[in-house]
Each structure stands twice: as C-alpha cells, then as structure tokens.
Amino acid sequence: MKKEKAVVVFSGGQDSTTCLFWAMKEFSSVEAVTFDYNQRHRTEIDCARAITSELGIKHHVLDMSLLNQLAPNALTREEIAVEDGEEGGLPSTFVPGRNLLFMSFAGVLASQVQAKHIVTGVCETDFSGYPDCRDIFVKSLNVTLNLSMDQDFVIHTPLMWLNKAETWKLADELGALDFVRTKTLTCYNGIIADGCGVCPACKLRKKGLDQFLEGDVS
C-alpha cells in the first residue's frame, strides 16, 4: 500500500528526476517544487516544467532570487568559471545555504499542501564536497523543520548512499532510464541529455552511466 502525499524538490536533473519517479512509485500523491534563484541557465526551470508537465505532476516554481544576490557563484554568475575545489576546498558551483533554504521552503509548501513527506536527491557518495548534501545535515534539518512548524515531516533521500552508476541502475529499475538519459539537465553549461561532456557534472554523469552499462555496479 502506498504512503501519503509527498513533495519532491525538483531541478529537472538526473538525480531529482530519478527521485521523482521513485516518489511516484512510493506515494499516493506527488507534487514537485522548483526554485528560481536566477540561476545561470534558465533552461533548468524550463526542463523541470517540461518533465512535470509530461508526467502530469503538479509543479510549483518559487522565487528565491535573494539567494542569487547573497551567494555569487559559478551557477549564478557568467563571469565565474566552473571549477573543482583546490586543496580540499569547495568547488565554485557551491551555493552557500541553498539546500538549507530550499528544504525549508519545501517544508512550508508541504505544510500548505498537506504533505508529510519531502523527497530530495542529495547524495553523500557523489556530492562534490557540498556540506549541505550530507546525511547528517538532512537529519538535523528534518528535526529542525518538525520543531519549527510542529509537524511530523519525513525527509527521504533515496540516493544518499548511491554512486552515479547505482543511481542509473535505480532509474532503470523504475522504468525511467531512457527518460532520465534524454530529458534531464545535469550539465553546468545548460545542455540537456548528455550535456557538454566536459564540465564536472557531465563527467560524473557519464562515468556513472558507462559503469552501469558495462555492468560495473556494486
């Protein structure tokens, strides 16, 4: 028997789309929320709209433009190059406070639409060093959300302990492999599907796909 209603934090990328299919299987009712923080590539929001429209999922787009003003980075500024972190530092694509704010507003929305469950695609295995993708952060925030609104939310992280090859495997098990491969936007340069092939996100995505297709999945 399926559980209650869920809100999926949704960017239109590989991970969040896989989570959307997972939620559609697990819950009786699903809505998606995308955050507009004046990100570098508006195609991300268009992609999220197209996917939810095709799947018949109610889709909310929330204005988070203040985040752009407060946290200049490679995802919000054309003049900042997409680069990995040096000597253990964070990559230029890290947006300070992003998941904290996104999950908080997802909680407010969940309260309004009477959803107990919140689903996010954060992952500690292939997380690029982002501190707000760690399991300890999600668990802490879950407690904080519940205390702040006197609710009983459950935050689900289906990908938390999966690498990219295992994420592709999950998409395949959900019957969504071709959909995720051809209709999602992971690329930091704003190219749907296989992307530019050279940015860190594309390299990680391709490496995982190749491993999955070769059967190299633990």
UniProtKB/TrEMBL annotation:
Q: Name one GO biological process term.
A: tRNA queuosine(34) biosynthetic process
What is the taxonomic lineage of the source species?
A: Bacteria, Bacillati, Bacillota, Bacilli, Bacillales
Does the keyword Cell membrane belong to this entry? no
Cofactor binding summary note:
Binds 1 zinc ion per subunit.
Q: Which HAMAP family match?
A: QueC
Q: Which domain of life is it from?
A: Bacteria
Subunit architecture: Homodimer.
**Protein name, per record:** 7-cyano-7-deazaguanine synthase
Similarity comment text for this entry: Belongs to the QueC family.
Say which species the protein is native to.
Mesobacillus subterraneus
Give one GO molecular function term: ligase activity, forming carbon-nitrogen bonds
